[in-house]
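Students often ask why inverse folding is considered easier than folding. One informal answer: many sequences map to the same fold, so there is more than one right answer. In these notes we will look at a single instance of the problem. The structure comes first.
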């Protein structure tokens, strides 16, 4: 005869099985696959496409704005040519002798 804890474990398993639709084995797995596929195509994919379209519209609007801020970065000078590093500086090619 099962003990008290074994009976409660069985009741939990039964309740969980009933909450999952009462299906067992392959049919349970197949129903979850179908439900997941439907959820993806009905909710997830359309929301992802909407986000992509909104991003594309925002990028297009930003590109067409002529008053937008464009960050300009000065090029970093070569420290050897500017004399920041001591030693032999690079000489122009026309002054070099072989």
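Output (designed amino acids):
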């Amino acid at each position: 005869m099962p003990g008290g804890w074994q009976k409660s474990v069985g009741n939990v398993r039964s309740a969980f099985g009933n909450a999952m639709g009462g299906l067992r084995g392959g049919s349970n797995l197949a129903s979850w696959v179908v439900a997941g596929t439907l959820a993806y195509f009905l909710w997830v994919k359309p929301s992802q496409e909407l986000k992509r379209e909104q991003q594309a519209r925002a990028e297009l609007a930003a590109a067409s704005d002529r008053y937008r801020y464009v960050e300009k970065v000065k090029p970093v000078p070569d420290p050897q040519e500017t004399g920041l590093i001591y030693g032999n500086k690079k000489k122009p090619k026309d002054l070099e002798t072989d």
